[in-house]
Amino acid sequence: MPAGNDTAFEAVARAYELLVNEETRWERERDFHVQLIQESIGPTRSMREAAVLDLGCGTGFHARHLAGSHGVARVVGVDPSASMLQVAAGKEHGDRVTWLKGAAETPPLPREIDRYDTVMLMGNTFSLIKYVHPVLDALAAVTRPAGGRFVIQMIDYDRLRGLGPQVTERSSSECRIIKHLKPIAGADSGQPGIRVGAELSIEVQSVSDGRTLDRQQNVLYEHPEAEWAESADKAGWSIIQRRAGYGPDPTVGIDRIFILQRKA
């Protein structure tokens, strides 16, 4: 969700939810996220006192579930797409979240929140950011020192290249959404230190006549751990855990998840 990306995904916002089975996904991730927030606030504070930022929230999957099912009273969902936020606000528990249009480089901090306890950067969001260094600095400035947590979910590009191009298709009675994820073998973007890892396209078609209603295309950037981790350290973050999944055993899974802690 880089600055200037306001139009990305806006035309497909209504159909985007077809790509995610929310019940199944939350069942898989719930315990992980609840424990992460509990660790970030410590034993003397309750979940109702936690302040959580879901950055690049899209239709608000994580923000809505945390605010609705687990009573986190101060959840902020930020996305550059006004249409995504409109869809998020209209969903169940959407009225319990503060939705703000914004960019990762300048994360908003509502007046009633001093600092965030937990920051979430899930899905493809990290790969949509071209320059991660200023984002790491900006997030450190709005996260509580000495204990605040930052979770990043990343694409495993080595695994993706092994699998080859991926196509996901889902339909409703009115439209069909088709997601193409095409890995690229470490392509040079033409700018020093910036590598393209994949191309992402999402197309929405009419079920009745097959017309293309809209198509969005994005470049996904590959950020080597050695590079972004050095920037994170300079910004005031420490990597405290690397995970392959959301279950009790952090080594089991196909994801790439990093948990960072804000330094004192």
Mean pLDDT: 91
| Straight-line distance between termini | 28 Å
Gyration radius from CA atoms, angstroms: 18 Å
Pattern of helices and strands: HHEHEHEEHHEHEEEEHEE
What is the gist of this entry?
28% of the residues lie in helices and 31% in strands.
3D architecture notes:
The protein is of the alpha/beta class and 264 residues long. It has two domains: 10-155 and 224-262, Vaccinia Virus protein VP39 (Rossmann fold, 3-Layer(aba) Sandwich); 158-222, no CATH class. The protein is built from eight helices and eleven strands. It has a seven-stranded mixed beta sheet, sandwiched between helices. A four-stranded antiparallel beta sheet has the order 6-7-8-9. Helix 2 (22-41) packs across helix 3 and helix 6 (133-141) runs parallel beside helix 8 (225-235). The protein is globular.
Topology (SSEs and partners):
Blueprint lengths: L12 H4 L5 H20 L9 E5 L5 H9 L4 E6 L2 H9 L7 E4 L16 E4 L3 H4 L4 H9 L7 E6 L2 H7 L2 E6 L3 E14 L6 E12 L5 E11 L2 H11 L1 E7 L12 E7 L2
Parallel strand pairs: 1-2, 1-4, 2-3, 4-5
Antiparallel strand pairs: 5-11, 6-7, 7-8, 8-9, 10-11
Helix pairs in contact: 2-3, 6-8
